[in-house]
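Input set for joint prediction.
Command: fold jointly, output tokens.
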Amino acid sequence: MMNQIHTSTVTVHFGDCDPAGIVFFANFSKWMDDASHQYFWKCGLPRWADYHRATGILGTPLVETNHRFVAPATYGDVLTITTTVTEWRARVFIQTHRITRGDTLICEGRETRVFVRPDTQDPTKIKAVAIPADVIAACAA
Amino acid sequence: MMNQIHTSTVTVHFGDCDPAGIVFFANFSKWMDDASHQYFWKCGLPRWADYHRATGILGTPLVETNHRFVAPATYGDVLTITTTVTEWRARVFIQTHRITRGDTLICEGRETRVFVRPDTQDPTKIKAVAIPADVIAACAA
Amino acid sequence: MMNQIHTSTVTVHFGDCDPAGIVFFANFSKWMDDASHQYFWKCGLPRWADYHRATGILGTPLVETNHRFVAPATYGDVLTITTTVTEWRARVFIQTHRITRGDTLICEGRETRVFVRPDTQDPTKIKAVAIPADVIAACAA
Amino acid sequence: MMNQIHTSTVTVHFGDCDPAGIVFFANFSKWMDDASHQYFWKCGLPRWADYHRATGILGTPLVETNHRFVAPATYGDVLTITTTVTEWRARVFIQTHRITRGDTLICEGRETRVFVRPDTQDPTKIKAVAIPADVIAACAA
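tokens >
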């Protein structure tokens, strides 16, 4: 089953760049994280803060990330982030992002995320839950 | 003499917010700095990196900033930054920014900046120069 | 009445620096904000999160900042931040920070902060309260 | 052949944390990048900026990163970063970092890096070079 694909854009700021004059790599993962949030809104889901009030689920923290840096970008560049969900497993899902500038691939990212809620035994802790069915339905292409 | 007024927008990311759930204040000054760059481009000047190659001038580092935080903003908010130059002095100039969300004032900033070039005595150092006449002309309303 | 003076240190990271090879200015204000937290701990007060549980007070958000940038710093530099409270007013207080590298002054900052608690009318809002007497006592030199 | 293992520490700042009150994940990769720089200094090599002047080599940009997030950390925490090089290949090397708080593993990272120099055909571009023999020798345990 395919999921929807959404794009967002980001303009690189001077302060996003490092002494080499190019985007400091950690900013790519920050932007992809934001694209993850935007992806679910564009699929019609509420913001996670509102979803939390309705369901008790807190959002989708990252378990693992993989980033591949292909070409540099610099300030003034307008980048496109193309995001989808490539796999729903029982308790984790895989979200991928491609950052491009025109036809040039800048960076690829693959995030492993979970849905969590507060632990009923110890509410200062969180635990992973099954992927909510309404999320899966909302993202389907 | 009045100068041009330009606006830019920024979308607040989850990663821009702090444990209080609101924009971490230092991001406002980062965004205003970017708005400073964009302001001069919108006035028709080249990027400072290109201006440097043409003139030897390196850009407009900050000498002093003043920020007033009026209301919070959070992730998902789309903010408008309204930027102008309020004063050209002999060796410094004043650039101001207002960040708003709709009609709500979020933050005001006032930056004191200089134009610099490498010091001819010691090229690892920089020194302030007179405000370039072409910059003043380009920004005039 | 004088207040205690405390110092903390920060090592500049590559990723803290901008395309000019020097600390991106907004990081100085981030470090000073952290020095504000550390200052109160060093005066013997609990972390604001713990203070909140005990008193309902949420911390000390910024109302206004003023920064003066005197000399650049770069990655690998170890900076000292010297922090004090220079003034307690009825509802705001002034905290100042000097960042130095050895004998060289890098940056000065002056923060206007308030103590806040949730608004009893609307708990999603906050309102400023009188400076707590135990805070004033703890910080006295 | 084993390489040296070095540690560095970082104190988590309020501004490093996100609305969940925990370290925003991208900061872990920023800190590991800094630990990479520190690792080579601790092995007796010069800063990359000085190494560049001596050899023409510009540093060690990232080609790929993999991060695994095991437990959260929050502001005030003092984290230890344990860094080594696990593999030298012809043109890439693998650097790994473990971030711990006491005995608790917080985050693991694996970076694939290259050594680069300006492209002789087009000095605005960079190209990967063989891992310098003096670097390999300096890092050996």
